[in-house]
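Input sequence (839 aa), recorded before submission:
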Amino acid sequence: MLVLVAVAAGLGWWTVQRSFPTTSGELEVSGLREPVTVMRDASGIPSIVAENDHDLFFAQGFVHAQDRFWEMDFRRHVTAGRLAELFGESQVPTDAFIRTLNWRGIAEVEYTMLDETSRAFYDAYAEGVNAYLDQRSGADLSLEYAVLALQNPGYSPEPWSGVDSIAWLKAMAWDLRSNLEDEVDRALLATALPPEEVARLHPGFAWGEMPTILGSPAGAAPASHGAPVPIEASAQPEASAQPEASALAEASVLAALRANLDAVPELLGPAGNEIGSNSWVVAGSLTETGLPLLANDPHLGASMPSVWAQMGLACATIDDDCTFDVSGYTFAGLPGVIIGHNARIAWGFTNLGPDVADLYLERAGAETYELDGAQVPLAIREETIEVAGGDPRTITVRSTARGPIVTDLGGAYATVAGDYPAAAGIDTGGGEIALSLQWTALTPGTTPQAVFAMNRAQDWAQFRAAAALFDVPAQNLVYADVDGNIGYQAPGDIPVRLAGDGTVPLPGWTSANGWAGSIPFDQLPHELNPARGYIVTANNAVAADAPLLTMDWDLGYRARSIEQRIDALVASGAPITSDDLADIQLDTADANAETLVPLIQSLQLDGDAARGQQLLAGWDARADADSAEAAYFAVFWRNLLDCMFAELPDGTKPSGGDRWISVVDRLIDEPESAWWTDAESGSSGRDAVIAHALASAWAEASDRLGDDPERWRWGRLHTLTLTNQSFGESGIAPIEWLFNRGPYEVGGGSAIPNAMSWDAQEGYEVRWVPSMRMVIDLADVDRSRWINLTGASGHAFHPHYADQTPKWQHGELIDWPHTREAVEAAARDTLKLTPSPVE
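Predicted structure, token format:
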């Protein structure tokens, strides 16, 4: 038995290790034109040095495939709507949804639109990936293929293509699609609440109170930034005669849509309102070095491995044949660097969050839909979904001129389509009511070219020219350069609406609703060298006098905290350092606690509520991992939301993030509001409901953490488990053990600069994180520092699978070598890729 166990263990370890890449020595690779050097530092982060652009991107594809090919293969199956080919029947609904949106088809068009140089870069990258696939297959590529073989033994990955890379940008756009969920949420709430209460539960940005990106604080909002248009105010001809039935039927359609939205894999991690980011740039007039500092920490759903892959791409000599010297964060599967710096400029991203997707109610039949009283032909296509272990499935996709009909996906959609006309009292003449989706990412664009232009930009003018190509997803771009300039640019394809403000679905049977083009690039907000000496973006509103970009901004708590920290540093008179910026990234100041704790301290309480009040007395309102007060306050906050909003419709209940912090904050001044009611306990009025929530929280915290509050810690509740996207939630414990890592105890929380966000409907575990952190020093880029959520490798049990996570957990950054001298000095492994001899 011992021998058998030893043999099994040995075979298991051999299976795990056989996919680890070669990182030192020399490899002959077919397709290279000249030798390429790949140097890896102590964290396994690769820096590639090539003699020409073709070989540089060829090698990037080869190295990405070495480290992350399963991740790349899984992603392309998602973006092509081909997950059922890997995992069988269970993935058919997800594939059907993505086929309906046609991500792959749009990517194919964008590939044909590429300029000759950009297409050559995508092709070279694909050649490098395929060169690696020529050398390995099956479990030699990644451990996941050994696991997949247990279910789908006949699968073998096909060659990579440039379209595979471009399609990934659609997934990026989908995960950053801004307010589509808010639009659905408002419509669902409208089935149960009057318009003024729907608006109350979707508070607008506090213009004049919270900082805006360009100018702080903002002035009063212009008229176009007023309250959202309530659903009843939209023109709905026959439906308006029976608003309650119409709203109820619409809710059924939208509830089904929300369920389908939630089923689509989020390749940047779990979606939600907490996806955001922080970035800021400080001018040299305020820094220790006299040149700018730039910080960025994108907040995305936690995934294993991290969505980011750190990498350097450098030409041995910059000339006409070789034009890149850039390093930063890449996406495995996509050529170029997404966020980072070259020798002259640095840039960071946060989600701008414009409203770029709208839903429309459609009177649609099998072949036509109604528009302005006429029947217009639908665009119809069939899609065949191959199913591992099963028969192929064929779906029919119908599209209006605005976009695809998303209620053609069977199941609940088919039922809704049949029931809606009678429920709404609409005479459709034998047609049906459906929902169509208009989304900017479903129009072919130029983002695939933007990455290369940004990587090679040398000054503000060239950077803005690159930004003009970055149409989807729209981002806040912060900028700094070695000449001392700092800047901001909002790019993107952002629609101009003919009617409404994008907050609720509108009828599609009239051309009075829809889009009238996009905001011209020159009218999008931008700024160079502001007098205040810094620029902060944290998904907050850009400017009061900007074009209407969205009604659903982040409400500004993170931006305010960051600006307060920077203002304090400026007021101190001491020059700002990169350590100062790194420390701001770790700020755990909880604005929600700063508001509610003083109110709690003012109440007359007894019993467990008084014990909770006493625990919070003197707390600094920081959500640190070792804080007992932070643990108790989080439990109180979740209980308070449950008390106040238990009666909301399913799918609309509080997540606890910035939106709900603002809702409760505004209700504090209305102590007798009906929202201060807990039906279960019979409590009513602000003070009574808070007291009940405090007592309930004390009981829950004692149950979860023990009876001694001195031993309570926020980190014990607030844990992060890094979950593999494909097998991490398989339900098979041994397989999950292979690929997942954690739990890790962390601090921070929602609407906090250190954005370890959680969902009050799910529990206290972390769902969204700073997916990476970086601080770039333009005085000496080799003094820049960075960290990734996981590690350089996507191979389970590889030394670099999760080696950066403990440092990330504790707020540490690691060295970021960029210049040739620094990269060579930091190298621990060096691999020489050489062209194969000509046969």
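Checked by second reader. Residues 427 and 634 are 50 Å apart (CA to CA).
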